[in-house]
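Here we describe the complex-level prediction in full. Unlike the single-chain runs in Section 2.1, the two entities below were treated as one system.
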Amino acid sequence: MNFGLSEDQVLLKTTIKRFLEEQCPTSRVRAIMESDSGHDSGLWQGLVDLGVPGLTVPAAYGGSGLELLDLALAAEELGYAATPGPFLGSALATVALLEGGDASQREHWLPRMAAGTTLATIALGEADSEWDPARYMTKVAGGKLTGAKPFVPYAGSADAIVVGAVDGSGPGLWLVERGAPGINITPLKVVDMTRRVDTVRFTDTPATKLGGSAAAMQRTIDAGCVLIAADAYGGARRCLDMTVQYALQREQFGQIIGAFQAVKHQIANLAAELEPSLSLYWYAAHAFDRIPDQSARHAALVKAHMTDLYDRVTRDTTELHGGIGFTWEFDLHLWFRRAIFDRSFLGEASVHRARAAQLAGW
Amino acid sequence: MDLSYSAEYETFREEVQQFLKQHWTEEDINSAPPPDQRAMMMGAVIRTDERATAFRLKAIERGYLYRHVPKRYGGGEQPPDPLKSTIIAEEFRRAKAPAEIMGQGPSMLVPTVVEHGTEEQKQRFVRDTLLGKITWCQGYSEPGSGSDLASLRTRGVLEGDFWVINGQKIWTSNADTSEWMFCLARTEPDAPKHEGISYILIDMKTPGLDVRPLRQMTGDADFNEVFFDNVRVPAKNIVGKRGQGWVVSRSTLKHERALIGSSVLSRRTLDGVIMMAQAVNLRGKPAIQDPYIRNRIVELETKVLCSEYHGYRMLTMQAHNEEPGVAGLVSKLYGTQLSYDIGKLAMDLMGDRGLLAPGEESAPAMGMFVTAYMWSLGILIAGGTANIQRNVIAERGFGLPRDAAASRK
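The structure predicted for the assembly as a whole is:
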């Protein structure tokens, strides 16, 4: 019985953490988020060199052959550093190909994605926050895709988009390549500038069907829930760490504010919520990897729980900083914004709690 | 992450199961009346009849119980292994077998006497306490000394061969049924407050000692007040040296505590709440179909899971001798908030019937949920209030400055 990380996992996590400390200070985060594309190919290449996009790709396709828990540890560190860029879309496109691609599709795409020569993203959700594949309006007929996907991460930078749509046999996944006819990409102005989303409209766009079905799509969404929860944990942890540091330095009324019980207690309350949540996200990732009958429900639970908590932590830690926390120049709002992304993307908390209730058979 | 037990531990589990099958039968289980529900909720069920004692002696001999206590004082004496402790706890619970006796004797007095007591004290008290033959209450809190325990004022004055004790204790669970009390008394009035306290063992039958029940807000009396009027205690009943009582009482509990247990109660209450939500109607439909109720149940179930998984994580760290830091300090605060939230949901589901007190026959689940709801307030205070827990997390966990008022004056 070992409810914890392996030595390799600790090493992986530490390596990514050190890389981001050096290569992704908030000064660079700000430079990237204020750029047009919000994507810095140099930073992304650094993550590729560390093997991040290929963590779950089988060794035969040039990846590390690890599991979602390992990828979630990377997501946690990326969240801790507020790393801008296409990680999430890329990771979910990878899951979609692993779960839904046939042998030749995997063999074609996965090595390129792991090596960073191809950047892929995912287009699942539709208008009205609809993440239920059974209700997708995007249609495929005769190998041509038509419809609109309003929230596609980094579509403008992507070489390939995995799209959830419906054809005569029901929901499924299709792959569309950059430059295919009938693609129209509109960048959106978003709250979290470290994770861009674009609206993508397809009009009779040629698309290749992936072998998998709705189940593959649901697995992709579940993986997304776990990765977002890990990101949220990392971000919340960072906010709390920054706040403890600040409470030990900032002086008012002739003493450091960390000496005031009001401040201590607010910090303690956040820590008391955050620590047990780490165990939940580890378990949810582990369930995705190893415990099939608990996987979907835990994904729903952890997405709802962790993004709710992230929201609370960013609010309370901003409050604890006082005025400086509400300025543009101070970094806290980077995580406040990421908490908004994590909360909204892939369906908000109540959607996932309703799903968890349904999965329990209530 | 590997949630299975290795072959070594599976073998150990089989050994324990074999032992239980052989030594604790269906007949043994049925040889005593089942505990009443209220007693179960309080976690106070202790079987100490002859069958139970005979079984416990065998289990101790095999090293399954009291593993941290040396054999020569009546313990099981085994190297610490939290996984084995957990397996033992799980299997004993499953077999409804008498496990380690809960309560303040085995959990607090024994480790303290084993570490700081004289040979005579060890021989006299440890074995009989482990078997439930001597029961103990804890004389710590006083009316003027709750969170600031070290300010306690119950006096102990050495007169010849006796300590003469005067003063008052409060919130003393089981003082009315216990044979002995381990008591903190101020014996060095001129020393700084933490250095003037001694740890003294008092026979509850000593003249001058008066126990009065204390009725708490639930309406029941589960605690007592204890008054000392020139209570004469043999001088040799001090544990440790004069003035070292504070340190003696804080001596680390060298327990390999089965950390999984802490979330068991909230899981049980939540399961009861879910059953109730399926049984009662809200606006003409089962309450569990109401979106708001479903949402709340799922939210709380998630927190119960957090608490369970956190227990597994702490257990793993303990097994690997890792220092848990902040993570090791949050369980009580998390658990008390959770038990309140679950209790609140239960109250809402009962609707108007939430007005009914325990004892009213038409009260849902015999008033169990109302009792749980009230007790969620009790555990918020007992053993260090939530605000004290918050201080501990902030100070020991994050290194924020200690409160000025708590400094060693």
